[in-house]
Amino acid sequence: QVQLVESGGGSVQSGGSLRLSCTASGVLYRTYAMSWFRQAPGKGRQGVASISSDGDTDIGDSVKGRFTISRDNAKNAVYLQMNALKPEDTAMYYCAAGKGLRYASLLDYEHSDWGQGTQVTVSS
Questions:
Q1: E strands, the chain, where?
Q2: Quick one: pLDDT at residue 23?
């Protein structure tokens, strides 16, 4: 089982930037697809960005051009760089791992392990 710990959330004004980090434990990390999801109060979970073990990425339409995902297999880490933040980006952000998932995916049911989440709040 992969254990995931997110960090980097916080409060920022509209137009600002944040970088989220997720550190994974587990020797098979580098073979997993890694993704970021978010959930705002009263809304369903939304796929934000995903990266395969080979580095292919899939970015959600609502954040395309503003958010990028990257991974550092040597550090067992995945990152979400968020630029040009908007108030509608306010949500709890979760890191997720897809065991056996060989492609980038924004589908939550394809992910096997989840972190506890980190809050991102964007004020106007």
A1: 3-7, 10-13, 18-25, 33-39, 46-51, 57-59, 67-72, 77-82, 91-98, 113-114, 118-123
A2: 95
Handedness of CA 121, 50, 41, 88 (dihedral sign): positive
Biggest CA pair distance of the chain: 42
- pLDDT tens per residue across span 32-84: 899 999 999 999 999 999 999 999 999 999 999 999 999 998 899 999 999 99
User: Using a CB cutoff of 8 Å and minimum separation of 24, what contacts does 57-63 make?
Assistant: 57/104, 58/104, 58/105, 58/106, 60/106, 62/88, 63/89
CA angle 43, 69, 51 (to 5 degrees): 90
Structure tokens at 9: 């959330």
